[in-house]
């Protein structure tokens, strides 16, 4: 279903923006096994889209480049879990709903697609059902769905600490022209963490705030993604795709999350679009998407 078709067919629509880990430092591990992280996160204009419509009975449909892969993977449950959890919370206000997910992002790719879909489901259904939750209650509900969902509820630049639940906005982070790149090969997040040699790495430090894009790029370049080395051991294509981004003129490249999506930051959107087109021509079987991230002052 084209994007304009989704807007025409459904009364309420929500963007589920791709979540980009500009930096990810693993700083420790809790007794329950959860890893402690420091992350600088931003969100891309490109992502999945969801539509919501009153219905006689609950329904869920899929479209988009990766809709078929999601259906085969059985990964639709996070949207449905978000619907069911919110319904339990708001009770009689929650009439049946048809939810349509336009799946434009690769699944299990380190850019928060499923978490962004869950967050967009919560936002869209609260609009459709005409209800609001207290901020603390909504944050707790989001966290039940996954550690990344509270961040995706914000969908704006932030620093996240702990397991992702301690969120601090970053209002001065600029927008970046970017290419997202993924070889469409899965990488196991548990296996990436298992291969991580050191789990008490130095924390993320960005203070004092840097004032302009060049300084931000230098600060991001001085940070790191501690999960990238073990992910490269598991999926050799991550090294190849990062090298392709660099050769295409990216000012900075890095893997996002636990992979396998990498990003390249470019000087302009024109440069990003040209690079994405050339990379797609070279490897049409891989995923390349030019986009712009949102600014902290959105």
Automatic annotation (TrEMBL):
Catalytic function, reaction form: 4-CDP-2-C-methyl-D-erythritol + ATP = 4-CDP-2-C-methyl-D-erythritol 2-phosphate + ADP + H(+)
Active site: 19, 148
Enzyme class: transferase
Homology family: Belongs to the GHMP kinase family. IspE subfamily.
Record's function text: Catalyzes the phosphorylation of the position 2 hydroxy group of 4-diphosphocytidyl-2C-methyl-D-erythritol.
Alphabetized HAMAP family for the sequence: IspE
Protein name: 4-diphosphocytidyl-2-C-methyl-D-erythritol kinase
Taxonomic placement: Bacteria, Pseudomonadati, Pseudomonadota, Alphaproteobacteria, Hyphomicrobiales
Gene giving rise to this polypeptide: ispE
